[in-house]
Design a protein that fits this description.
The chain starts with a helix and ends with a helix. By secondary structure, the chain is mostly helical. The chain binds zinc ion (ZN). The site of zinc ion (ZN) has 8 residues, from loops.
């Protein structure tokens, strides 16, 4: 095995461990925030027998597995939500670390690494806010706003990194050609999003009642959601937005204009995440 591969595996494993620990803290947030309790102080205890939990009971993922999903003291089953969130966070962190490997492979070049590092932190924070929000608020639509903002920040950071790189390195592409490329990505992404929205509006409202879509108060949630779908597609660029727009279109046709409109955000966020991270992974390994 090459040293690069060993280093890559070590970093992905470390990201997974870090993710499991953050996932464990996310569980504390989900349980305590709705009860207006502090999330920084206080010991964890069993919710049934009230026994204070020791270090061995609090190892993310493993404690749940070794105790067979039961409290060590009173044997009451513990919700599988804990291990699900811990392993989901660990998995997300590992994928994100895998898509940012160049940063770990060249740790001594701070200039090259500062932007990917900020980007990675933004993605880490984003995934946990989305999880907490979805679990506590039950208003999954807001996950869309969080995802849009985080991907937007990520996008801006990448542009900034490229621009700075161009300014320093005279051999690379000219600034104007880079800006042109990003502009094209935004335009194509927005066009793909707009196409998905237009198709879903025509299929759900029909050409005759288009006015209903544009003016009806009942369609306001749909219009806001559609606007966000187009913005998100523009932000993530052409290829990832094909996935996001397709997922959104399917959800949009299934949900139409009922009370489940708020779930559109979740489908959009999921589609965007799959497209975005899938494409990043593809670029990494090609
Ligand atoms: Zn107990």
């Amino acid at each position: 095995m090459s040293p690069e591969l060993v280093l890559a595996i070590i970093n992905i494993v470390l990201a997974g461990i870090f993710g499991a620990i953050v996932g464990s803290f996310t569980n504390v947030c989900i349980y305590r925030i709705p009860e207006h309790r502090t999330i920084v102080k206080g010991h964890s205890m069993c919710m049934t027998c009230g026994h204070e939990l020791g270090a061995l009971d609090l190892v993310p993922i493993f404690s749940w597995l070794f105790l067979g999903g039961k409290c060590r003291y009173c044997k009451t089953p513990i919700s599988s939500r804990y291990i699900k969130i811990e392993s989901l966070t660990a998995l997300c962190y590992m994928i994100m670390a895998a898509t940012h490997l160049s940063m770990f492979l060249d740790p001594l070049d701070p200039y090259k690494n500062i932007f990917p590092f900020i980007e990675l932190c933004a993605l880490f924070v984003m995934i946990n806010i989305v999880i907490v929000e979805m679990m506590i608020m039950k208003d999954t639509g807001s996950s869309m706003y969080v995802m849009t903002s985080a991907l937007g920040i990520d996008f801006l950071v990448q542009i900034l990194a490229r621009v700075l790189h161009t300014l320093r390195d005279t051999d690379s592409e000219s600034l104007s050609s880079l800006i042109g490329k990003w502009g094209l990505q935004i335009f194509l992404g927005a066009a793909i999003g707009l196409l998905a929205v237009a198709i879903s509006v025509i299929l759900t409202f029909g050409l005759k009642s288009l006015g209903k879509y544009f003016h009806d108060k009942d369609s306001r949630a749909l219009r806001t959601s559609d606007l966000f779908a187009i913005a998100l597609c523009a932000v993530i660029g052409a290829i990832p937005s094909i996935v996001a727009a397709t997922v959104y279109l399917i959800a949009r046709l299934l949900i139409k204009n009922g009370k489940n409109v708020k779930y559109l955000g979740t489908f959009l966020a999921a589609g965007a995440a799959i497209g975005y991270f899938g494409y990043s992974l593809l670029l990494c390994f090609s």
